Amino acid sequence: MNPRLTNSQQRTICSQLGRVRLQLLYKASIHGFTGAAFHQRCDTRSPTVSVGYNASGFVFGGYTKQPFSQSGQYVYDDQAFLFTFSGEKLLKYPVTGPAYAVKMIGNSGPYFGEAFALVSGSKPVVYNNPGGYYSFSAAEMHGNNLILTECEVYQVEDTKELERPWRTVIWESETRTELMESIKSYNPSVSSVSQVRVLLIGPVGAGKSSFFNSINSVFRGHVTSQAISGSSTTSLSTQFRSYSLKAGREGKPLPIILCDTMGLEENTGSGLAIDDISNILKGHLPDRYQFNPSAPLHSEAHGYCKSSDLKDKIHCVAYVTDACKVSIMPTKMEEKLEATRKKVNLIGIPQLVLLTKVDEACPLVMEDVRNVYRSYYIRQKMQEVSTRLGVPLSCVVPVKNYSEELELDPNCDILLLCAVQQMLRFADNYFDDISEQLSNMEVKE
Length: 445
Fold this sequence. Notes:
Elements (H helix, E strand, L loop, with lengths): L6 H8 L5 E8 H4 L3 H8 L5 E7 L4 E6 L9 E2 L5 E6 L2 E6 L7 E2 L7 E2 L3 E3 L7 E3 L9 H5 L5 E11 L14 H12 L11 E6 L6 H13 L18 E8 L6 E8 L13 H8 L7 E2 L25 E7 L8 H17 L3 E6 L1 H4 L1 H5 L8 H14 L6 E3 L11 H35 L1
Parallel strand pairs: 12-14, 12-16, 16-17, 17-18
Antiparallel strand pairs: 1-11, 2-3, 2-11, 3-5, 4-7, 5-6, 8-9, 9-10, 13-14, 13-15
Helix pairs in contact: 5-12, 6-12, 7-8
């Protein structure tokens, strides 16, 4: 369930309400254009922002601090307002009769005074009566187009700041330098492996390719875009890619390879197939293998690498998850991730979670990425993804990928480098287990 409000529009609305973020509760195209569906998803939740969309391109709605109900009564709210977007600008229409700000109607969506309602009468239409405790121009607000193409309701959530960071990070240039040198000088504890192979797995649009581009940017000294990345409903990555990293343009290869995959998708027969994941883990897929979701690569197929050494296998798995979508992760996606985790667990490969887009998820972090461990909201999201994916909280690492920047930010670099450092530490755990298994086999012989 993806919000139709753009990030820019969400930020504009939030700027009117303080240090808050929006969490999508109800989407009419999914839950139904009915009062019953709206009330089931939104009753008792507050404050809220309700948004309507029409085919004329208007984006409009209302805000109330009061929780919705089906009492049939008016509710007082002196902070309620209606709004519309004029380009990127938000036009507000404050309530003129606070005692009648919101009407709690069972057979309708959000109902503001006697002026405006979305999903009116359980139909995809707008009730419009300018002057009913709100004053606005209908032409300006929605272009007199009263047919809804979509209706959404968002809960407004505070982004609390913790008294002190719950993880310690020293945000200084020396930290960035030390992390880079530590990664450059790393040597796997197994002599047969020169580079740790980390597999990036996650839903479409979570930021797998962007993570590689961001790490590559840190070591190149400028923002790069080697791997195809962007926003799409289907995976932009259609090949299996093993990306080596270099310390600078002419520098030596770093001791880590990031393996990028096709994005996971909810539906069977689309996105990365679970059977292909097994082949990747065991080192059977060649670089640039073209994924076919409906026909995973089998052992007799052309290109299948039948013999693979430890250096060809995956040594750490990173699940890449969008912080903005943790709470609305579809059940089928959760089931696919659970099936993947079971396969990875059977092989004994260590796993961690990269929580991406933490700046988009939390205004506090948007202000300053150094607030990432001071944000109560981000900690909540990390705990939630820990529970949903079944990994310890210590295995969840927040990052901010480079997506719109032209220049590097040392603090973003520190978060990204900390994530790579954890990957190398987890790979060491894997190599230790492998060495122990080999030692036990030698003893038995």
